[in-house]
Every structure is written in C-alpha cells, then in structure tokens.
Amino acid sequence: MSSHYEAPIRKPLVIGEKSYHDITVDVARPVEGRANKLWWTVFTIALVAFLWGVASMAYTIGTGIGTWGLNKTIGWAWDITNFVWWVGIGHAGTLISAVLLLFRQKWRMAINRSAEAMTIFSVVQAGLFPIIHMGRPWLAYWVLPIPNQFGSLWVNFNSPLLWDVFAISTYLSVSLVFWWTGLLPDFAMLRDRAITPFTKRVYSILSFGWSGRVKDWQRFEEVSLVLAGLATPLVLSVHTIVSFDFATSVIPGWHTTIFPPYFVAGAVFSGFAMVNTLLIIMRKVSNLEDYITIQHIELMNMICMITGSIVGVAYITELWVAWYSGVEYEQYAFLNRASGPYWWSYWLMMTCNVISPQVMWIKKIRTNIMASFIISLVINVGMWFERFVIIVTSLHRDYLPSSWTMFQPTFVDAGIYVGTIGFFFVLFLLYSRSFPVIAQAEVKTILKSSGEFYKKARDNKENHQSLNH
Amino acid sequence: MRTIYKIAALVGVSVLTTSCFNKERPNYQFMPNMYESVAYETYSESPAFKNGKEGQLPAEGSIPRGFTPEAYPNTTEGLEQARANLKSPLAENEKDLEKGKELYAIYCSVCHGAKGDGKGNLVKREKFLGVPDYKDRELTEGGIYHVITYGLNAMGSHANQLTQHERWLVTDYVLKLKSE
C-alpha cells in the first residue's frame, strides 16, 4: 500500500467503508432479493407498452406499410429515425466498456455493466426496425449472401443498407460476447452465493464454470483488452455505416461528408444521456449510490457536454458549408429546416442538443442529480429530433417542387416506437433483477486504490511518513 | 454412439422435411406473393367467362389488323374457283423454299411423306390409307392453298397451325415436290 502512488487530487470512486464482501453483498442484493411493488408496476407498464408495440408491428406486417404515415416522397420517417436513435443510444455502452477501458478510466467500472446491457437491449430495438420497415419482411433473409437456387443470386455489396446488416449484426454479437465474458466472474459470484438449487443451477450454467484461477484471470484480461480494441473501431464504424445510409445519397441535406463523425458524436452524446437517465434511477432504486457516485454522473455529464459541443460544431459546419457551397438546393434544405413547415422540430433539436449540454459547464448543474436527469432526457428528445429533422426535412422538400409534401405519422408509427421503448425497459428491468448490475469483480480491483476508506487511510499514513516520501 | 444419434437425428430431420413433397401434386410454396397471375392468362380458366375459358371468340365478321379474309369460301365451288383463279400473292423475293420445307416437314410429311408421294409414316404404319401421290393429281397453287386452308375429305384444315403467309410458302414447296 505504501508503495502505491495515487494522486491525491483524485476523488474516491467507491464511497464508504467498503470491504470486498460489502461489494459482493451490495451487488447481489437486487438479484437475491424479491421485486417490490414499484418494480412490478413499472414492469407491467413496460410490458403493456411492449405488447402494444407487438400488436402494431403485427398490424403493419399483416396489413402493410401503408398503415404508417409514409408517402411516395417520404419513404423513410419514424422507422429509420427510431432505428438510428436506438443504434445511437447503444453506442455509449460500448464506448464506456471499450474506449474507456483503453483509456484506463477506472470510473467506467461501476457503470460499464449497465451501459453494455443498455447497448445490447437498444441494439435489439434498433434491429427490429430494418425488418419491420420492409415491405416483405418474410424475405428479409435475402439480404444475406447465401448460395441459393436462383442461380446463386447474391446481394449487391454496394448498398449501405447491406452494410447496416453486417454492421448491426456484428455489433450486437461482439457486444454480447464482450458483455458476457465480463459477466462470467460475476455470475460465478452469484452461483457461489446461491441458496436455492434452482438459482444455483441457473447461475452455474450462465457462469460457464468460472473458477477464477490465475490463468483464467490472465486470459480474461487479455480477452477484455482485445475485445475492447476490436469494439472501439466497431463502435465508430457501426454508426458511420448507419450515417452512410444518408451520406451516400444524392439528397440535399443528406449528401454530406461530415455525417460519419457527426453521427458517431451524436450517438455517444445520446447514449451517454441514456446511461445517465438509467443509472440515476438505478443507483437510487438498487441502493448503489456508493458505487455510482456523483462523480460518475459528473463525468458522464462532461462527456455529454463534449460530444454535445462536437454535435454543435457539426451543426454550424453544415450551415456554413451550405452557405459556402453555392448549391441552391443545399442552401434551401437548410433554409427549409430553419424556417419551413418543420421549423419547430429543427429549433427543438437545436435547443435540446446545442444549449442543454452547454449548461454542463456550470459545476453546480453538472453535479446536480436532478438537473442531470432532466438534461439527459432533454438530450434524448433532442437526438430523436435530430434524426427526424435530417430524415424528414431533407426528404419532404428536395429537387422537384412537384414532389414536395408533408409527413404525418399514424398511431401505428407511434405504437411501434412506444413498443420498442417498452421492450427496452422490459429487458432492462428483467436484467436489473437477475444480472449483477455492477461489475463487482472489476470494482474490487479499484477498491483499494480508489475506495474512499482506503484513500483516507493512505492519506493519513502519508501524512505520517511525509518526510520519507 | 453419439455420432450415430447425431446422424440419425439429421436423417430424421431431412426425411421429415422432404417427405411431405408429393410428386403427383405441385410442391409447397413459401409466400407465393406473385406466383398466381392477377391478370387473365392465355388458356387459363376463369369463372368470369360464360364457358369458363379465357379464350373468347371474336365477334363474327370482325377483321384483325394485318389479316385478309379468305377470297374463296369453304365449298366445292369455292375450291373449283380457287383452283382456277387464286394466285400466290408472294413476290419472287418472298418465296422461301427452305422455310416451306421446314413447315411441310412439321405439318404435312407425316401423312403425305417427305417426297409428297403419299407414303408418310402414318400411312406406312397403316394407321390409315388413301393418301394420294401429288404426281397423280392435277394441282394448282390456288387449289393447294384452298385445301390447306379448309381441308378436303380426310384432311383437316391447317389454318389454325399456319398463317396465310406460311400456307403460301408450303404451297410453293408442294408444287416443287410435285415437279420432282
């Protein structure tokens, strides 16, 4: 301990006089306890929303896409808006677990498990949209290059929509593997604590016989690092590919080279906001305030602020380039966004995405839980509108004025969106009651370096030995 | 032992998934969205028509574009007149003995024989008799055309199989056979 150097400026990441056992107990408590009434209430609401979404999807597939508000000019609206929104939300999870791992950020350890769960659950939601927005979803398997009896008819690899298939499916599978390997020691912990034979059986299956030997841990760390190294380019490329859906088109307002980084920044922005939303609630209801501290929230707010500023710069860049380009279509596209029939969505987006993260410069706000929670919701609304604005305002007025039109969503559009939110929360609520929501194995590795109790003990000791040091 | 189980399972699944196919019926289809025609297809059956057939007769007396009604009626007098007066409308450059030979081989030689000697396959096998040799008959191009168009005695009309132009080509070829 005395040989350990840790800058005194660093604030503790684990609050209170915690031992390893305390961490175990705190993490296992929500899993081992019984769900309370509040959980059941929220779960029921989420389930009802989910079922409503299932009904809307069944109605769409059974009756046709015409049940949506799309028209011949606007072939993409809420479907792809929600798709990009959900994919974007998913990105924070990978960013937290992979990029922050590469940057050796210890504060990620308390939040990475839930962030990754959020990734997986939101990518699942996103993955629904490419299927259900198809006119003939039962032929969706045609997007896969499978040898077949049509003279081995294959897909065209030039379409970003096909890249989406590869991007999203790879992203989901890598995230799932990354998440699950991280879960092994924690499942093993639950397995070893299990009292009933049923839970014992379940967690011994889930933990894959993890026994925590030195060799296992060594390889575990290596795998984590390699997966983090793989997931980082993945997280950047996935949303880049999603942005290619628009950037590779010829539509004024879509055909922009700024989209790949700008979409990724927006994804991280909205994803961190969602993590904040979820964790602010979770730390309260699962009594994890000692692990998900105000410092975690502050750091997430800072990332929101940084990525929000990147997004802001991107907005200004787009506007500047539109003016600088001298292309009247491009200029009109942005004029239409600001002052056309969808002006409200543009200004709502601008307010939510540009102004709200800027208040995070004020320490009082970014360290205020209530303010963080509200802003995180505002950001998610704003980011939904960003995708809506990009998609709909670019489509509803482009080259031919005779093709100008408006978009009006139907209750089916809304029902599917609500359904995915419900589905997301169904999954997340089930997760939070059956999975260790904090990577206890990882938090235990920082307890002695970043725990409040140990930090104080070290400070006291160093004060005594200050002459030697 | 495990491998045997696996193989057995695989065989079982393949038998299950393929055994439902009955060779005497059309096979099962996956989502036949546009397999069945919405429009009326030629030769299809449909209750929309009185006799249930898609092929309805045109109104009598109507003349389709590119078609000239036959000049001589389907009667003995018509045949006589055609023999005497009907001439081939084909110009010299339109005559095509090769094409005529092909058509003759398809529609005529099974009875009349490849050489026009009345010794076609059906005659040789004695399915029926009484097909004359072209050389024994007085033939004019108008008469040949008339016979192909309407038939004569045991011979049926070939107007269904051959267009007017093709009938003249065959007529030419028949005259050539006779001259040989």
From TrEMBL, chain A:
It comes from the Bacteria. The chain crosses the membrane at residues 38-63, 83-103, 115-135, 161-183, 223-242, 262-281, 302-323, 343-362, 369-394, 414-431. InterPro entries: NrfD-like (IPR005614). GO terms for cellular component: plasma membrane. It is found in: Cell membrane. It is a multi-pass membrane protein. The keyword Membrane applies. Keywords: Cell membrane, Membrane, Transmembrane, Transmembrane helix. The keyword Ribosomal protein does not apply. Belongs to the NrfD family. This is Quinol:cytochrome c oxidoreductase quinone-binding subunit 1. It comes from Myroides indicus.
TrEMBL record, chain B:
SUPFAM superfamilies: Cytochrome c. Residues 95-178 form the Cytochrome c domain. It holds the Pfam family Cytochrome_CBB3. Keywords: Heme, Iron, Metal-binding. Signal peptide: none annotated. The keyword Protein transport does not apply. GO terms for molecular function: electron transfer activity; heme binding; metal ion binding. The keyword Heme applies. InterPro entries: Cyt_c-like_dom, Cyt_c-like_dom_sf. This is Quinol:cytochrome c oxidoreductase monoheme cytochrome subunit. The lineage of its organism: Bacteria, Pseudomonadati, Bacteroidota, Flavobacteriia, Flavobacteriales. It comes from the Bacteria.
